[in-house]
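Task: sequence design from structure.
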């Protein structure tokens, strides 16, 4: 006679399956490797033609603009959750969640600033205008290149900070509320669609930002769980 499986055990198993941020290390390694290959392929073969097509055929409509600001929504939610932890009842229930979000914001910020400085990629369009000139771009100057360790906003296209923060924070929400995975997935797709639709970033920038965002979330979730376990 086989032992019965308790309903709570089934529910826990289902939630673990719905949490891609808690995949085994080996699986995560291969997924990140595949993502890196996709980024390289996009930079080499997809970014320039897609950017040109977007510029010629797609208007920056009211649909794409709010989608491109997806990180702002998650940043507001993050602040509200962290502030909510000042109440003891809320803190007891969501302490690990708030801590993971805090670590994610810090980690994502460091990775974003560091990666943009290291890669120094030019933008698809020219929209930075200063007294010293405008940023070179693929659409207006035929310039698409990487300038490692270049200083200035003209070389901040790679990776996409909007994609990075959206995927980072949405991944933590996915981890905490796995049954709403479809909502977090839609937010991720929306951020990519909004940025690409307005030609704010090359596709490779967005894939790189998404990859680093998920990595930020994984590191932060692991750190927060370790911290709370040590505190107990």
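Answer:
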């Amino acid at each position: 006679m086989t032992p019965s499986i308790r309903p709570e055990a089934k529910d826990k198993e289902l939630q673990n399956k719905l949490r891609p941020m808690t995949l085994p290390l080996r699986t995560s390694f291969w997924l990140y490797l595949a993502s890196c290959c996709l980024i390289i392929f996009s930079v080499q073969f997809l970014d320039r033609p897609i950017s040109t097509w977007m510029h010629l055929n797609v208007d920056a409509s009211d649909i794409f603009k709010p989608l491109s600001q997806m990180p702002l929504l998650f940043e507001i939610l993050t602040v509200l959750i962290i502030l909510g932890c000042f109440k003891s009842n809320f803190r007891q229930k969501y302490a690990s969640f708030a801590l993971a979000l805090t670590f994610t914001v810090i980690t994502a910020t460091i990775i974003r600033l560091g990666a943009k400085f290291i890669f120094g990629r030019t933008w698809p369009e020219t929209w930075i205008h200063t007294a010293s000139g405008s940023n070179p771009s693929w659409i207006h100057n035929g310039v698409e290149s990487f300038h490692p360790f270049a200083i200035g906003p003209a070389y901040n296209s790679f990776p996409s900070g909007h994609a990075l923060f959206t995927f980072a924070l949405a991944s933590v929400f996915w981890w905490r509320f796995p049954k709403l995975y479809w909502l977090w997935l839609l937010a991720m797709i929306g951020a990519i669609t909004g940025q690409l639709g307005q030609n704010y970033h090359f596709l490779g920038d967005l894939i790189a930002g998404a990859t680093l965002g998920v990595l930020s979330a994984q590191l932060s979730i692991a750190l927060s769980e370790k911290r709370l376990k040590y505190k107990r």
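The first strand starts at residue 129 and ends at 130.
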